[in-house]
Amino acid sequence: MDRQPLISIIVPVYNVEKYVGKCIDSILNQSYKNLEVILVDDGSTDGSASIVETLIAEYPEYNIRLIRQANGGVSAARNRGIEE
To answer: Are 11 and 37 a contacting pair, CB within 8 Å?
Structure first.
């Protein structure tokens, strides 16, 4: 049996409510489907996290997770995603 490996995509999220939906849609529309999408909200003060939560509910068949943390910068967000 030839199984495709799971690919983890880590997306730091910080005040990107205008773009985060398009980003997630782009990831989910790739031809490779064995994905997990880890979005790390790095203390956003806009509606970014709410948009991600809506999309998680809208696409339950996909492996999408939202991790929240206090603002620590893009490197801290990426590192948190790697830990997960």
So the answer is: yes
pLDDT tens readout for residues 23-69:
999 999 999 999 999 999 999 999 999 999 999 999 999 999 999 99
How many angstroms separate the CA atoms of 31 and 44, rounded?
Answer: 30
Residue ranges of alpha helices (H) inside the chain are 20-28, 48-58, 74-83
Residues 13-30, mean pLDDT to the nearest whole number:
96
Using DSSP's 3-state secondary structure scheme, residue 41 falls into: strand
Single pTM value for the model: 0.91
Residue 44 and residue 15 in contact, taking contact as beta carbons nearer than 8 Å: yes
Widest pairwise Cα distance in the chain: 46
Q: What are phi and psi of 56, to 5 degrees?
A: -60, -45
